[in-house]
Amino acid sequence: MKRKALVLCGVVGLLGLLSIATGFAAEATKIKASEVQFTSATQCTYPRSPALALGLIAAVALAIAQVIINVATGCVCCKRSQHSSNSKWTIAFVCFVICW
């Protein structure tokens, strides 16, 4: 069981680091106002930038990490036992909804 938990934490940690790195890289490569070229009074041209792809990779990595954590812990959709109607389960459910 400990080995499985370590592997899950490692995978989620790597996905988190990937998300951080690609998020900062997307911020660093975004188009600045001075780089926009105006072709006419009503049209402008944006140069190509890897910022969109990097931002999408960061978002997908976080979504995958979120799914892995939710499935591994048996939260809401993959529950392994019946939940009781106590306040701790209600708090856990509220946190689950907020984190998504």
UniProtKB/TrEMBL annotation:
The lineage of its organism: Eukaryota, Viridiplantae, Streptophyta, Embryophyta, Tracheophyta. It comes from the Eukaryota. It is found in: Endomembrane system. It is a multi-pass membrane protein. The chain crosses the membrane at residues 49-78. This is Uncharacterized protein. Its main location: membrane. Belongs to the DESIGUAL family. InterPro entries: DEAL/Modifying_wall_lignin1/2, DESIGUAL. It holds the Pfam family DUF1218. Keywords: Membrane, Signal, Transmembrane, Transmembrane helix. One of its GO terms (cellular component) is endomembrane system.
